[in-house]
Structures are given as C-alpha cells and as structure tokens.
C-alpha cells in the first residue's frame, strides 16, 4: 500500500508518522508542501506539528499550500486521507472536514496520554479495533477543542461519523474525561464517505511497547488490510 506524508514548515510529527507507516509495511514518500503533484497514493497523511508556527490560526496558512489542491482532488476521488492533530486542523481549514478546532478550554497547551473510546469500527481506519474499545493515546495540542454547528453535529451522530471520543479508563464519556472542551467529547471524525479521518490524538506515537504502547497499531493495520 502506498502512502504520502505532506510536510510543511513547522511539521514536527512527519518523521514519527513515516516510521509508523514503514513499520506497518507501507511504501511511503515524503511530499514537500510546495509540490504541485502527488505520487499515486492509497493513503495521504497530513501530520501533526505547528505548520507555519500556527501563525494567524492553526492550519490556516498550510490550508492554502500548493499541494493542498491535489490533496483535495485525491480525497474527492476516494483516496484515504488521515489528518492528525495539526493535520485535523488543516482538514477543517480546507473544508474536507466540517467544524473547527478552538483553543483548549483551559487556554493551555496539553501534552499527556488520555483515554479514547472507539465509536465506529465500520471504516477502513478502525476495522481492526473492537466496538467501544478503550485506547490510551497521547495528545499534544493547544487548539484541540472541536466545535461545529448543530446541524453538522446531528449529522455526525445520525450517520455514525464520530470515530473516537475522550473517555476515562472505564470508558465513561463525561466532562471530567474531556481534556480540551471538545463538543460531546469528540476526538476524531469522518467525512460522510468515511474516506477522510481527522483526529487530535497521535496514534503514530503508540506503536511500540518500548516507548509507549501499541494502541495505535490497529489503525494502521486496518488501513493496510
């Protein structure tokens, strides 16, 4: 399976995701944001980091980069697209995903491992997980507070487009298990066709027990299969 990782000035998780993809046997290429063509790809990843130093707002400038037009074309033709953290923010800036990521509720940068509940296993991103499985995944963001309008929120719930929600170690979804104030504890969403996933947590950091855990592995194994 062929993957392409888009790299922006300020990306700092591009190498992490490349390591994860290569470990899972993807044939990966790194694509600089100024490129105007994409190699043939089964998966496009927009990684985490601080593209353009989060100047103006997170993902705003990156969303206008030369390569983004090709990413949008590929996504609209059915290519799988994964946006992690800053990548999620960029996906909302481009309109590939609806909603926005606001400042965390405590107005502070958060970097810690949190619990997630898998809300939908009927996708190419989550098929290897179990329904309602609880994961421990790292988050590291300043603008992870997901917000959208009521119409879109109803659509997300009705069409089962919420991929992950923040929860506690027992799987309970409540305000106290919400690290950033996200609407309904939302940590990741799909588009209507489920070929695009945006998520704030970093699954690429959870692929090896020596450095963390392996709770992120099944996202990549779902894709490779």
Question: Top keywords for this entry?
Answer:
Rossmann fold; 5 helices; 9-stranded mixed β-sheet; 20% helix; single chain; 225 residues; alpha/beta
Radius of gyration: 16 Å
The first-level CATH class name: Alpha Beta
So what's the overall shape? Answer: globular
Strand order in the sheet with the most strands: 2-1-3-4-11-10-9-6-7
Q: What is the assigned CATH homologous superfamily?
A: Class I glutamine amidotransferase (GATase) domain
- Report the total helices: 5
Number of distinct beta strands: 11
**Biggest sheet character:** 9 strands, mixed
Provide the succession of SSEs: EHEEHEHEEEEHEEEH
Number of domains: 1
Helix content: 10-25%
Rounded to the nearest angstrom, the distance between the terminal CA atoms is 9 Å
Report the CATH architecture.
3-Layer(aba) Sandwich
Uncertain residue ranges: none
What's the pLDDT, averaged over the residues?
97
Structural class assignment: alpha/beta
Beta content comes to 25-35%
CATH structural fold name: Rossmann fold
């Amino acid at each position: 399976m062929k993957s392409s990782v888009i790299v922006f000035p300020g990306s700092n998780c591009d190498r992490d995701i490349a390591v994860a993809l290569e470990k899972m046997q993807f044939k990966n290429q790194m694509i600089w944001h100024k490129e105007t063509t994409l190699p043939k790809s089964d998966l496009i990843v927009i990684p985490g980091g601080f593209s353009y130093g989060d100047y103006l707002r997170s993902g705003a400038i990156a969303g206008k980069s030369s390569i983004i037009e090709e990413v949008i074309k590929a996504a609209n033709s059915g290519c799988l697209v994964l946006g992690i953290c800053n990548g999620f923010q960029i996906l909302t800036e481009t309109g590939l995903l609806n909603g926005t990521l606001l400042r965390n509720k405590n107005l502070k940068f958060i970097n810690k491992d949190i619990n997630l509940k898998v809300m939908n296993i009927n996708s190419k991103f989550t098929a290897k997980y179990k329904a309602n499985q609880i994961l421990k995944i790292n988050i590291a963001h300043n603008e992870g507070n997901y917000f959208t309008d009521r119409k879109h929120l109803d659509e997300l719930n009705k069409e089962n487009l919420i991929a992950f929600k923040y929860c506690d170690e027992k799987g309970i979804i409540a305000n106290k298990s919400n690290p950033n104030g996200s609407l309904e504890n939302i940590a990741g969403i799909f588009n209507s066709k489920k070929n695009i996933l945006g998520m704030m947590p970093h699954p690429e950091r959870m692929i090896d027990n020596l450095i963390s855990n392996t709770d992120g592995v099944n996202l990549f194994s779902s894709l490779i299969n």
